[in-house]
Amino acid sequence: xxxxxxxxxxxxxxEILSFNLERAGYKPVEANSAEQGMxxxxxxxxxxxxxxxxxxxxxxxxxxxxxxxxxKIPIIFLTARSAEEDVLNGFRSGADDYISKPFSSAELLAxxxxxxxxxxxxxxxxxxxxxxKIDAKSAKAFLAxxxxxxxxxxxxxxxxxIKHKGTYFTRxxxxxELWAEAPYVTERTIDVHIAHIRAKLGLYKxxxxxxxxxxxxxxxxxx
Length: 223
Hints:
The protein has 223 residues and is of the alpha/beta class. 42% of the residues lie in helices and 22% in strands.
């Protein structure tokens, strides 16, 4: 059940939002200020419904602070201010969507569903292991923010291992998974590709483990 943080100082509206979200199968988490909302940020939160006009820190400031901290939780602004400049300020602050008050529960739930779906789609294409990031959609790999160029098969091996981080695979299992169309590939081929990957990982080469009798595995525990 996805947890959605509602940051809204109007109690009645906050309770209505919680009721509608809960009825739709979500788990609402309530906060009556940006400061309280910041304190309730946790890994389980999948979306933030954020009022703009809040006492103390306003919604724009909260969004900017979250983005400055590399928080990627999607944000939907809720506000009565619908002028073009207000909308633009919302997106500049890091918003993923913007709903003008008053709005219907049907519109809110539709926006929530769309933003969550987009967020999950983006997450599913990105894989992390320590300083290593793999973007499966663009077929790119980054090490400590620097792009590293791998051959097609090197990339395929790395992507497969990062998807199953911490699990060992023998040479035979890797051939079966990644060379199904070329059964003539030998185990020596795997060793050569692994050696090339390790060389390109440089200082982080120990992320790619080998264990006699078990095979190869990718881990970030050695960092």
